[in-house]
From TrEMBL:
Native source species: Streptomyces liangshanensis
Gene name for this UniProt entry: ureD
Protein name per UniProt: Urease accessory protein UreD
Keyword Chaperone annotated: yes
Keyword tags: Chaperone, Cytoplasm, Nickel insertion
GO molecular function: nickel cation binding
InterPro entries: UreD
Length: 264
């Protein structure tokens, strides 16, 4: 039986007035330390809050529809992380069907004026036989700041990946900042694992850092080792794209990139 569940988080400068869990998505206030350096007097930004997403059951399975909705109100600062990786698993095949329905996972993030969000989930693992469609949509106000990390591990140890379709859309002040789609696994077009795309790597990730400070000092494109690149966006932000042999190597690259780009 498929699951429908939505978790909701609202952060203000004063606290977390909405912290709602549903089904397999449990959200917990963890520690009240803000992302990045202290904003300093006169900035209008409040103290930081931290929320951790804890998996309460195995999900997403085929046919599940999960969602996380986060809103960071004016001047608030929020970090959202996770207690463990998310593993996309095969679902049951209904009577008369050839395959299980795909699972859907929607993440909707809204960051208001002079607010700041660090969206730092753990890896998404695409297990063999799974079929997941994941969409992340971010709405940023003109003075909002964002750090977003996205990591995908294609198959558990020694297995091929499932089918994984992800789309990431970021808009700032109502205008597109980034809109891209990735497809991996047996349901993707041919060549996704070839030399021009992943080159046999099984860990792929990206890091987005956006904020008004990039308007005054845009980043310059640069290579980060052999399998990662930092690219300025057509707006106040940067995108780091990386592939790696495994999750540990991928995290190391993205952490180093974050040190280069955040709070410049």
């Amino acid at each position: 039986m498929s699951v429908r569940a939505t978790a909701r988080i609202v952060a203000t400068r004063e606290g977390l007035p909405v912290l709602a869990s549903d089904g397999p998505l449990a959200v917990r206030r963890t520690r009240a330390t803000g992302p990045g350096p202290d904003p300093g007097p006169g900035t209008g930004r409040g103290p930081g809050h931290r929320v951790t997403v804890v998996g309460a059951m195995s999900a997403p399975l085929g046919g599940d529809r999960l969602a996380v909705e986060v809103r960071v109100r004016d001047g608030a600062r929020l970090t959202v992380d996770a207690a463990a990786a998310t593993i996309a698993l095969p679902g049951r095949i209904a009577a008369g069907a050839d395959t299980a329905e795909p699972a859907h996972y929607d993440v909707r993030l809204t960051v208001e004026e002079d607010a700041e969000l660090h969206w730092l989930p753990e890896q998404l693992v695409s297990a063999a036989g799974s079929d997941l469609r994941m969409r992340t949509t971010v709405e940023l106000a003109a003075t909002a700041r964002l750090v977003l990390r996205d990591e995908q591990i294609l198959g558990r140890h020694g297995e091929e990946p499932g089918t994984l379709l992800t789309r990431l859309t970021v808009r700032r002040a109502g205008r597109p900042l980034l809109d891209q789609e990735l497809r991996h696994g047996p349901g993707a077009p041919g060549g996704w694992d070839g030399g021009a795309v992943l080159g046999g790597h099984r860990a792929v990730g990206q890091l987005i850092v956006a904020g008004p400070e990039f308007e005054e000092k845009p980043a310059r494109p640069q290579l980060l080792g052999d399998t990662a690149v930092l690219t300025p966006l057509a707006g106040p932000g940067v995108l780091v794209t990386a592939v790696a042999a495994d999750a540990l190597a991928l995290r190391r690259v993205l952490d180093e990139a974050l040190n280069l780009t955040a709070y410049r």
